Structure formats: C-alpha cells, structure tokens
Write a sequence for this structure.
C-alpha cells in the first residue's frame, strides 16, 4: 500500500477501540505498518495487534523490542490509551482510584514517550522532515475545568505539560522527534459507556453534544484525522503544541453542569 | 492588619519557603496558621515564633491518614477551618530519557497526589465551618511550569500541570455543590526558596546558576517568598471572593 506514511512504523496504544481504532485505520490506510497495542482484545487487521499494558514498564520494553525486531524501525507513537476512572469527585475519589487513573493516563504516556524516543533514536531518519512523531491524547479536561472525574482531570493536565517537556527536550537534543498533544472534546466512544448506560446512547449523545458549540459530539474518525496530521510530516513545524478538536468547547463561554 | 481576622489556615510545606512566609503573614493579618510539614525542627521553631495563633503538625502529604489527622488537629485546636495552602512540593531536574518511573511517581505523588489529598480532606471541614457563616478558600501552588514546558523538568511539569487542572475541578465542583469554597492556583516563577537553592550553585555556561535564573525573568531577578505570599493572602482572604478556578501568575514576567 502506498500513502504519505509509506514505509513508516507506528504504535497506537488503546488501538482496539474508539479514537485509537480510528487512528489505526487511518495510519494504515496511509501505508504505515501499524501495531495496535491494547489491554483489550483488538482486531488483527489492518494492524498487528499486541496485548499491552501501558502502565507496565516491562511491557513497554517487550513491545519496543518486538517492534524493532520485527519491523526494524519506529516512526510514530500515538499514546492514546486511557481510562475515565469513574465519576469520583474531590470528595469521593479514593487514593486507589487516583493511583490507577494516573498510572494509565499519566505514567502510561510518560513511558510511551520514553520508549518512543529510545526506538526512534535507534532507527534514524526514513522520511523528509523528522525522525519521529509522538502524539499524546490528552483531553479538554486537561485545559478547562470540569466538576467531573477528579483523577481523570488531573491526569490529563499532567499529559498536557509532560508533552511540552518532551517536545522541548527532543528539540534541544536535535533528535528530530516532535511531540504534540491532542485535546478532544466529547467523542462518541466507550469512555462514555457509564453515561450511555444511564440515559441511553442517543439521548446521551444529544446531551453531551449540546454542550459543544458545534452542536454534536465528535466521531472517533474525526480525531483520527487530527492524529494522522500530527503523525505525518505535514505537521513538521509543530512541536509542543496543544491541538484542540472539541467542537468549540474551549473557544468561548459556556454554561457548565456537573458533568460538563 | 486584619485581612484574615479569625480565619484558620492549614499550610502544607509550612516550615520553609513560600509556606513559611505565608504562615507569618496569616498570623500578622489576624488569622491562625496550622503549619504542616515533614521538617519538625523548622516547623516547631516557626510555630513557637508565631505564638498562640500558630500550631505545628507533622505531615507527609502523600499519606492520607496524616492529612485526616492534620485537619482534625487543626479544627480541634482552632475550632474550624477556612483556608488551605498546598505549598509542599519537590523540584527535581530530570528529562524524558533520564527520569525513571519511580522518580516520576515520587514527584507526582508529592506535588500532585499530595495536593489532591489536601483538597479532599479539607472540603468536609470547610463545609462544616462555612455552614456557620464565612467562606472557604483553597490555594494550590502550581508553577510557571504548569503553564509552560521545560526540557529538564519532565516529572515536575507533569505534576504541576495536574495541579493546574485539579484546581479547576475542585473549584467547579464546590461551585456546583454551593459549598462556598473557592479554589485557585498560583504559578510562581523562580522564587528564592530552599527548593531552588541547588540551582543557584550550579553554573550554566559561563553564568552562575543564580544569574541565569534571574535573567529568565523580564524583571531581572528572582522572586521573594513575600511576593508570592502576598498573592496567596489575597486569595485566602475575602478580597478575592469572585475568583475561583483561576490561574494567578507571580512570575516577574516570565510567561509574558
């Protein structure tokens, strides 16, 4: 297959569903060899599926060795895996929930960046503009507040700033590796399952969509396109950037409810 | 000198730096300061210096049980709780290649989880206090590095980014629940405190570390703890009654 990512190798965490699954499809469509890494079972095509726990450092070591061994190179890492962690607020969130959510959402991205750099440095340039691109999926919860899940909100703030530190470090070291964060608004994925179970899928989509100036939730493929752009050399001058794809939520004033 | 008259303020990291300066100011402005810190010697000395309006509490901010006890001891001694300053924190230099998972977790546990636990455990006490009148205020120390990145502050940036958004979460939750508790973050530049002391010694190129840090700031100098404490005092007091979920910079123009 030929495309703008032809000859490149990509890892997408959380690739089995939602935004990750959409990113896997789009990167593969553009000719990349994609490794879909997820703790949940994923489809074998168009990516090679690898069972992977992003919070485990030994799992990252194994995954990197596997990818470099089989594909010989690494160009793109999309740190997308994440959990909502339930509805716990500042009064009800336990230390256990805090640690679990941060282990996956924040430490998982930290490890993803660390091993991405190790892999990308080893394999050298294979494309026009840069040696590699790391895309971290944060959230609008990492930008504006919500009264929703406390641990999730904090973990996405960590990803937002961690991304900038990685970007500046790689720039200073002249590694040719870029690192950017994506901040989705409401996307119709399994992370909203608790809400779907409460009010139903369609009603839930309308409820959350109504909080976006654009009047609807995003489809996962729309976020996949943003990730594809950041993964490709088309975004060669972007590093440390925060890319919102939120239907306008963070653009202006909005009336916010408890979950908003 | 009564901007905090009869207000009780719990201060994590209260034995030194910004926390200690704030404790002094709180007492001078008619309030009471519970100085919570791991450093017993320094904390007790400061509490003794400030007299009956101050109290020392031993606190490791990563330990939930110790927060419970600190809050209970504060309300037990002073009869209520109006303010919290989460000032305890560590500054560590590391980058994405050198930082180990253990180090990442340690920095985030202290700076980010410690702030989470502080907010969590003061909210019930503040609810009780404010039910009898008055308002509650939580001030979380983030950093300019919760707003901008730095290559050699990987774990610190992540932890301060977390504090920044955690603050908004607490602010909005308390607002929706009509608790009359506000929560804001303060983002200092480089302040002349024990936290940055090692940086002052380490030369950068042909500059001293101190000179290098000073020149980062358009004002051409380091901040003084008093200058951050002044901003914190404003946020703890009712003067800032319409501010919640906001980011307050005190950075000598660093992010301008």
């Amino acid at each position: 297959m030929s495309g703008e990512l032809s000859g490149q190798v990509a890892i997408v965490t959380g690739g089995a569903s939602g935004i990750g699954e959409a990113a896997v499809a789009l990167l593969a469509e553009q000719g990349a060899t994609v490794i879909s890494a997820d703790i949940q079972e994923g489809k074998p095509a168009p990516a090679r599926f690898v069972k992977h726990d992003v919070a485990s450092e030994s799992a990252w070591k194994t995954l990197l060795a596997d990818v470099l061994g089989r594909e010989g190179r690494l160009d793109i890492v999309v740190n997308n895996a994440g959990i909502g962690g339930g509805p716990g607020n500042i009064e009800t969130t336990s230390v256990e929930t805090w640690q679990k959510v941060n282990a996956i959402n924040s430490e998982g991205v930290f490890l993803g960046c660390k091993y991405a750099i190790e892999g990308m440095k080893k394999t050298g340039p294979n494309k026009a503009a840069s040696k590699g691109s790391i895309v971290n999926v944060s959230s609008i919860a990492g930008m504006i507040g919500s009264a929703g899940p406390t641990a999730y909100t904090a973990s996405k703030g960590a990803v937002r700033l961690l991304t900038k530190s990685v970007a500046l470090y790689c720039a200073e070291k002249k590694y040719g590796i870029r690192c950017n964060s994506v901040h989705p608004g409401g996307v119709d994925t399994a992370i909203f399952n608790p809400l779907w179970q409460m009010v139903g899928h369609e009603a839930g989509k309308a409820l959350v969509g109504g909080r976006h100036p654009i009047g609807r939730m995003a489809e996962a493929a729309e976020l996949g396109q943003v990730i594809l752009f950041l993964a490709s050399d088309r975004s060669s001058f972007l590093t440390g950037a925060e890319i919102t794809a939120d239907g306008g939520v963070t653009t202006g004033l909005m009336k916010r409810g408890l979950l908003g | 000198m009564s901007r905090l008259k009869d207000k009780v303020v719990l201060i994590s990291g209260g034995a030194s730096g910004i926390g200690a300066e704030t404790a002094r100011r709180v007492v001078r402005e008619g309030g009471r300061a519970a100085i919570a810190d791991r450093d017993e010697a320094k904390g007790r000395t400061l509490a003794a210096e400030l007299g009956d309006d101050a109290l020392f509490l031993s606190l490791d901010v990563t330990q939930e049980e110790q927060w419970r006890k600190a809050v209970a001891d504060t309300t037990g001694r002073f009869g209520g709780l109006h303010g919290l300053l989460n000032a305890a924190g560590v500054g560590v230099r590391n980058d994405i290649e050198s930082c180990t998972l253990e180090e990442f977790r340690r920095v985030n546990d202290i700076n980010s989880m410690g702030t989470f636990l502080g907010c969590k455990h003061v909210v019930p006490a503040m609810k009780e206090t404010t039910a009898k009148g008055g308002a509650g205020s939580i001030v979380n120390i983030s950093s300019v590095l919760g707003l901008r990145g730095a290559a050699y502050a990987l774990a610190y940036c992540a932890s301060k980014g977390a504090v920044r958004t955690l603050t908004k979460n607490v602010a909005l939750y308390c607002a929706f629940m009509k608790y009359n508790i506000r929560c804001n973050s303060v983002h200092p530049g480089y302040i002349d405190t024990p936290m940055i002391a090692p940086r002052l010694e380490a030369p950068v190129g042909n500059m001293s570390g101190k000179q290098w840090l000073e020149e980062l700031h358009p004002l051409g100098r380091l901040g003084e703890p008093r200058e951050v404490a002044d901003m914190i005092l404003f946020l703890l007091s009712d003067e800032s009654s319409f501010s919640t979920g906001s980011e307050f910079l005190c950075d000598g123009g660093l992010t301008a």
Notes: Chain B has a mean pLDDT of 97. Residues 8-193+223-250 of chain B form a domain with the Rossmann fold fold (CATH 3.40.50.720). Chain B is about 45% helix and 15% strand.
